Amino acid sequence: MTSAQHKPRNKQGKPASDDPVLIALGEQIASRRRASGRLQQDVADAAGVSRSTLHTIEHGGAGVRWEKVVAVADALGLQVVFAENRDHS
């Protein structure tokens, strides 16, 4: 069976870290991927990263290189931007 015949599972995994920022980022990326109907392997291939790296990103894991996160975001039509945190102004 090819990946085009599979549908993404709408499965929530356990966060890989306790960092709420990384967890929120990963949730946004996973949500976008699922909404587009794409499998982790398809997005990972398009971004030039391993499926396990994408899995780590989606679960808020630390230690992933920024350029890989940006590549995944780009493969999903997302842009990484920084906004002022008004709580820390």
UniProtKB/TrEMBL annotation:
CDD domains: HTH_XRE
A molecular function GO annotation: DNA binding
Annotated signal peptide: none
Region (Disordered): 1-21
SUPFAM superfamilies: lambda repressor-like DNA-binding domains (SSF47413)
Basic residues: compositionally biased ranges: 1-12
PROSITE patterns registered for this protein in UniProt: HTH_CROC1
Domain HTH cro/C1-type per the UniProt entry, residue ranges: 29-83
Protein name in UniProt: Helix-turn-helix domain-containing protein
Gene source species: Corynebacterium wankanglinii
